[in-house]
Amino acid sequence: MEFNERLRVSRKEKGLTQVDLAEKAGIAVNSVRLYESGKVTPKLDAMRKLADALEIDINWLLNGFTLKEHDEEFIQRLQGKGDVSARDLYLKKHPDDEPAPAKEKAPQSDVDRLMEGLNAESIRKLREYAELLLLGQDAQTAPTVPDDKEPAEK
């Protein structure tokens, strides 16, 4: 499901019209129509307003998934901390599913594997999100998120 579909579904689940959503978010009705049609992708500020108006996680609008506070293991894994296996992450996300095949440790390349199916815009947004996560760390020990086009900063 793409952004425009997630926006439309979320709006309808809340029982809002496009006009209602526009008023609640403080944006133009025409913008909501363009976003839902898929002709225009809103900037991050407009996405935040839409997510707030719909009372949903902005990650749902951006990527189709949410990253809950209790998913600390996943955050630690993105930051290169902790001892979290791929099996642990799978079972946390799919507790009712058949258990995933056990693995000793999740390979370092799991983040790369997760990013393989993403388009360039989603990768940019994921990097932006990772940067926000790293802001909470001490500036001297915080690793940088490498960009394919530029060398990583020290």
TrEMBL record:
<dbReference type="Pfam" id="PF01381">
    <property type="entry name" value="HTH_3"/>
</dbReference>
<keyword id="KW-0238">DNA-binding</keyword>
<dbReference type="GO" id="GO:0003677">
    <property type="term" value="F:DNA binding"/>
</dbReference>
<feature type="domain" description="HTH cro/C1-type">
    <location>
        <begin position="7"/>
        <end position="61"/>
    </location>
</feature>
<dbReference type="InterPro" id="IPR010982">
    <property type="entry name" value="Lambda_DNA-bd_dom_sf"/>
</dbReference>
<feature type="region of interest" description="Disordered">
    <location>
        <begin position="88"/>
        <end position="113"/>
    </location>
</feature>
<dbReference type="InterPro" id="IPR001387">
    <property type="entry name" value="Cro/C1-type_HTH"/>
</dbReference>
<protein>
    <submittedName>
        <fullName>Helix-turn-helix domain-containing protein</fullName>
    </submittedName>
</protein>
